[in-house]
Amino acid sequence: MADKNNHVVIMAGGIGSRFWPMSTPECPKQFIDVLGCGRTLLQLTADRFAGLCPAENIWVVTSEAYAGLVREQLPDVPERNILKEPCRRNTAPCIAYVSWKIKSVNPKANVVVTPSDHVVMNVKEFQRVIASCMKFTNETDAIVTLGMKPNRPETGYGYIQADLSVSSARNKEIYRVDSFREKPDLATAEKYISKNNYFWNAGIFVWNVSTIVNAFRVYQPGIARIFEGLIPHYGKEEEQELINREFPLCENISVDYAIMEKVEEIFVFPAAFGWSDLGTWGSLQEHTPQDAYGNACIGEHISVYDTHNCMIHTTQARKVVVQGLDGYIVAEKDGTLLICKLSEEQRIKQFSE
Amino acid sequence: MADKNNHVVIMAGGIGSRFWPMSTPECPKQFIDVLGCGRTLLQLTADRFAGLCPAENIWVVTSEAYAGLVREQLPDVPERNILKEPCRRNTAPCIAYVSWKIKSVNPKANVVVTPSDHVVMNVKEFQRVIASCMKFTNETDAIVTLGMKPNRPETGYGYIQADLSVSSARNKEIYRVDSFREKPDLATAEKYISKNNYFWNAGIFVWNVSTIVNAFRVYQPGIARIFEGLIPHYGKEEEQELINREFPLCENISVDYAIMEKVEEIFVFPAAFGWSDLGTWGSLQEHTPQDAYGNACIGEHISVYDTHNCMIHTTQARKVVVQGLDGYIVAEKDGTLLICKLSEEQRIKQFSE
């Protein structure tokens, strides 16, 4: 049964520029049915917490511009749980805001924080892992991160170095973190992979609300002071106006830099549930069923001839014929068309400008 | 000054299946601004006869389905000059119908017949050639064809073999035809090119109306009988109904087979005015200004990177980015997208089905 103290925070303020033209500033990838399965990434994210907490304990942090999309796509989430950042300040201020807010509602809240635009293939295993982490943080003042068991020397992710010599007494699958490592170069990534104690940092965190609020107080007193000062106003009429005034004063900093790398007692749950941050067209291709020639096609009436290893993604197009391509992205959205080698996709941001 | 006996017949009933998706059965290529110049191929065709005949002497033969497009695109052509074929029967019945019709209006008419979907780069030279041919047919009972001086061993065109040993006494640029040759294989085309008396058959004909009507009477008595029988009805209320009943009885045959190859006295005017039948995407690429890398781009906001020798043609797309292609067609129309090697474009008809 869903524990009434369990809360889920979905961070949905990103702009997904690497997935242009599918993802645009007007409608970033978390609001799109990227996988062509009938549910947007945001909906899939909420779906995978089903049974873990009541709907009124789901929180979404986004921007004013996207609040309408969130309401539309997650109609069961109460309006008051959709928090609107007046500007983008990375994940630390985002998490601080929602944490103080949750604490104002339930000081015993036990919280998972997750990005809104990742994919998880094995939802059952994901739920087992999250439940296990939440049991742990319900009983301890631990900060737990999820570490993804890597299968390739990916240079696009940060890594978590774990101390596998001894697991927690309370949970045999949870270990201490030795260090967080930024996105490595290929040689370093290969070194990490050759060992067994490096994991991808999925940006999914579990803690009880007192733990994270205290961590902000200790390690980010400037940010803590802002949200502490707003305590009398959470849930009141004036809240948004005050947030609009105060939030921009927060430092622009990720929660990894602001908290994770500073806290001494931090834990990792190494897990494998078919996770991807879907950060690139290439990763979408990997996570989409492919035909016998390695083509991943998402969209209506796509026909391919003599075509291999392509990622074809269309939304408005009524009919698409692709002949003679190997290793390309073909993406169409609302009258915008991209044809680009998968190997050159880091240039997409430039193309979109 | 435009001679009031001069008439122009534009055949505009084709369906342009090789230019899919730009050209569709609903709106074939003659009704499209293929060159991105602001005028459709039909309009460019009519434009290039400016000054040669009055607007009320321009005739368009098309189908019921396209009559609206013709009226819209050629508002100066009188409604009564737009002839509607009830079904497609190739060029011989088309030309017979319009010839009897013109004869009913003006038995002294001097006529040019032209396809609606070709391009001519040098309009001034085109007009000089046509005027010269019409002067000739005004004074003689000759059938004159236009022969295009070939610059490559094209296997997609029929050829006209001329007897260049002696030109007409009345016009030094006009010669007798020795034979018409169907689309050759490459070896044969190369043989033709190595001589100087083989010309591409452009499908443009000049004659006075008595000559062509008499030719039908002699060589296609079945077709002639049908249109002869309708003489009391041309221009009357019942014309379309009778045409709908009788026209389908005509043999399905091209004017080349039905008349040209049978007539003994037939002439050719070898000319060079930058002609193409625009039969393929490749020929459109050749006739469109190219960037330094051989890309021909027609459409709004097309950006290319590392791309060579491509034909990019878009109509509705708002923004197009192409990276890393060489020798491809990228064509978009109304939500339909084609990406195909130029070398494989003969398969487009299959792709469109």
Walk me through what this model shows.
- Two copies of one chain form a homodimer.
- The mean pLDDT of chain A is 94.
- The first copy, chain A, is of the alpha/beta class and 353 residues long.
- In chain A, the strands form four sheets. A five-stranded mixed β-barrel of chain A has the order 6-9-7-8-10. Chain A has a four-stranded mixed beta sheet with strand order 12-14-16-17.
- The radius of gyration of chain A is 21 Å and the shape is globular.
- Chain A starts with 5 loop residues before the first strand and ends with a helix.
- In chain A, 29% of the residues lie in helices and 26% in strands.
- β17 (336-341) of chain A pairs parallel with β15 of chain B.
The main pleated sheet of chain A reads as: 5 strands, mixed, barrel
Can you give the helix content of chain A as a percent range?
Answer: 25-40%
Helix-strand pattern of chain A: EHEHEHEEHEEEHEHHHHEEHEEEEEEH
Radius of gyration from the alpha-carbon trace of chain A, in angstroms: 21 Å
> What is the typical, i.e. mean, pLDDT of chain A?
94
Q: Estimate the global geometry of chain A from the Cα principal axes.
A: globular
Largest interface, per-chain counts? A-B, 30 and 30 residues
**CA(first)-CA(last) distance of chain A:** 48 Å
- In terms of quaternary structure, the protein is homodimer
**Beta-strand fraction estimate of chain A:** 25-35%
The number of helical runs of chain A is 11
Counted beta strands of chain A: 17
Uncertain runs of chain A are none
Strand-pairing-aware structural class of chain A: alpha/beta
